[in-house]
Amino acid sequence: MEGHCIGIVGGLGPYAGLDLVKKIFDQTRAVHDQEHLRVMLHSFPGDIPVRPEFLLGLTTVNPGEAIGRIMVGLVRAGADIIGMPCNTAHCPQILQLALEHLRQADAKTRFVHIIDAAVAQVRKTAQPGARVGLMGTVATLRTRLYQDALEAAGFIPVVLDQAQCEQVQQAISNEEFGIKATSSPVTQKARQILLQAAERLVALDVDVLLLGCTEIPLALTESAYFGIPAVDATSALARELVKAYDPSRLK
Q: Domain 6-113+236-249, CATH 3.30.450.40 — does that match?
């Protein structure tokens, strides 16, 4: 649609931004180059402070300030739809500050929320009352970002114990083998930790798995694990961004 442009706040981490752009392309109806959607990726990782440290009280520097500036830059470059492939950055303490910058720049720009997109995809995958096995960063889980949204939608969130959640965090952020350190390809150790976490959640009798960190789908790319369907928050966001652009363009 002429004039529309999707803007992506990248760098959270950088490969998660690339993954979102790829999934937008993958889910767009197009047979020629010219039929693909107008997309901009602003990946400025060095500008954005680490999100978990802020949410866990280890720093007072709110990443929402930098994220908001990047959103404004996207608007000025022509974006009227914005998505951000980082679940942790959607915590209200961060997101509200960023969106205030966006509102001041252009109240008409639409922000597509990854948590809403993922929960909507869970609704399409599982029945009301289903048990949803949740994988994410320690900060996202502690702030109950997904748990509250899933409960409000009528689902039962299921999380691993603290030690197992810390292992998932290591698969994401360990400087030697974590996905943030080695994304292309992901190390076998990181993938194995995440597979073990998925298996433990399945053993807790979940009906669907929710990959609630945009680094996790870089390692776990299948649509199901141990016979249980998986919802990828990045793919869910990509679908909602395509719909916001033009619903008729969605595969």
A: no
